C-alpha cells in the first residue's frame, strides 16, 4: 500500500515538473502584464470574412494601443483562405498593405502546403503579397501559437 502511494506521489511530481518545464518553454513575454498575443485564422475564400478578420485585427491593435499595452497579431491563412494573401487574386490586397504599413506588430502567415497544392493544380506560380511570410503548415502554425499561449480567433 505504501509502495502505491509512493508511486502515485512520484508520478504526480513528475507530471508537475513536466508541466512547469512546458510553461517555462513558452514564448518569452507570454506572461508579462501588458503584452498580448492573438492568432486569427482565415480558411475561407469569402471576401466578407476576410474583411471581418482585418476589422478584428485593426480593432484589437487600436484597443491595446489606446490603453498603452502591446499586442502581437498573426493572421494565419490556409486552404481557400490563402486567396487572401495571393498577389494576383486577393480581394483585400490594398487593405493588407495599408494595415501592415501602419501596424508593425501584425504578421500575415501563408500556408506553404496550400500554396504548393495550388501550384500543382494551376500548373504555375502562385504569388503571395510581399507582406506575407510562408509557414510550412497553417494548421500547425496555429497549434504552435496556441501552445505558446497565444489567444485564438476564427471570425
UniProtKB/TrEMBL annotation:
Transmembrane segments: none annotated. InterPro entries: DsrEFH-like, TAT_signal. Keywords: Plasmid, Signal. The keyword Magnesium does not apply. Residues 1-24 form the signal peptide. PANTHER family: BLR3518 PROTEIN. This is DsrE/DsrF-like family protein.
